[in-house]
Automatic annotation (TrEMBL):
Organism: Prunus yedoensis var. nudiflora
Domain Bulb-type lectin intervals: 33-156
Thylakoid keyword on record: no
Name of the molecule in the record: Bulb-type lectin domain-containing protein
Signal sequence, renumbered to the chain: 1-30
Record-level GO BP terms: recognition of pollen
Keyword annotations: Disulfide bond, Glycoprotein, Signal
Amino acid sequence: MGKRTETFHAFNPSIFILLFFSLFLSQHYCAQVHNITSSQPLAEGQTLVSPGHIFELGFFSPNNSANKYVGIWHKTIFPRKVVWVANRENALSVTDTLASLTINSNGNLELVDGKQSSIWSTNISVPSNGSAALLLDSGNFVVQDDIGTQLWRSFDYPGDTLLPMMLLGFDNKSGKRDVLTAWKSESDGSTGLFSVGLAPQIPTQMFIWINGSTPYWRSGPWDKTKFLGIPGMNDEYVSGLNLDDNVQQGTKYFSFFLNRILAYMEISYKGTLKLMYSEHGENWNLNFEAPMNPCDHYGICGPFGVCKASESPICKCLKGFKPKSQGEWSKGNRAGGCEENQIVLWE
Ligand SMILES: *[C@@H]1O[C@H](CO)[C@@H](O)[C@H](O)[C@H]1NC(C)=O
Ligand SMILES: *[C@@H]1O[C@H](CO)[C@@H](O)[C@H](O)[C@H]1NC(C)=O
Ligand SMILES: *[C@@H]1O[C@H](CO)[C@@H](O)[C@H](O)[C@H]1NC(C)=O
Ligand SMILES: *[C@@H]1O[C@H](CO)[C@@H](O)[C@H](O)[C@H]1NC(C)=O
Ligand SMILES: *[C@@H]1O[C@H](CO)[C@@H](O)[C@H](O)[C@H]1NC(C)=O
Ligand SMILES: *[C@@H]1O[C@H](CO)[C@@H](O)[C@H](O)[C@H]1NC(C)=O
């Protein structure tokens, strides 16, 4: 007892050293910053926060994997949804704790690993010194020059997620086309099998593709405020969906904006398109999801085939038709569809 009291009262320099270091470390590693400049890089343990504390950018490892990325998520909503990833095609190792995101000598935003090798960069031409990177309350991560002109925007490089005010579509003149591309898996942010976007053909529809070209699902045509083929689309919110089809400009863009409600649309690594929203900034609720059932899959029963999700098998041929290839059909590949029964009248 006496000994403990003595220790407590005695001057112990190690306590002050400890105190000093914990203050220093908390300032240095747990800090939230509001911009990245050449003199203020972002290190592991630090996050970049938007002015209204809506979005946050930092290092993360999805699903406790060996991959580490720099990404953006909503600051206060759980489960955390990563809405954009910088180095999705070039993951850092989870053991690399010395990586940093900085403004490099040519004014670009650059992610370097612990050995100072470049992992990812914005790679644009920056005409002046003093550029800085900021995260806006819309979730747009921007690089701006010394007078505040935006030089680069993450909204121009969508990943698997569309945020309100981002555009998904194409510009026929420039040839620029934006699609959302799914992750490879829950723990691998690189480009996976599925993508979603607008098809250029009339009528305007949204497609989910496999490998960028094989149709997997389609939304049905756009009708003023919604896509006709999405029955689950909640009418309460459909007014927030927008299709801007400018025939003269050759542009077509889909976007959504839910008034004062945080939301995102994503294509999951399993190929599911979801629109999620958070009314009070607490948790995520589902607005719509597609495909909803096996019959939603594009052309699953092929020409002259009929799909009924409640039956097994789900595909049947129209009356008077039979499977085009009985062998494929019985193996479960029914996309080849059906053909008319040949009724031989004369023999
Ligand atoms: C970056 O943040 C610092 C404070 O940490 C501030 O002094 C500076 O003006 C900011 N720069 C820009 C471009 O926002
Ligand atoms: C940077 O951009 C230049 C010109 O557009 C291109 O040639 C180069 O391959 C790019 N570098 C990287 C690392 O993406
Ligand atoms: C940027 O700064 C460097 C040295 O700090 C200077 O040599 C260079 O001319 C500057 N570039 C511009 C475009 O102002
Ligand atoms: C996520 O992590 C868990 C536990 O390590 C693992 O079992 C699961 O397969 C992972 N999921 C994916 C999709 O990678
Ligand atoms: C997609 O591409 C992969 C790899 O090239 C291939 O194995 C797979 O069969 C393709 N799937 C479709 C539906 O095209
Ligand atoms: C864009 O081009 C495609 C194919 O070249 C065409 O089918 C489509 O109608 C064009 N869309 C617009 C909006 O001009």
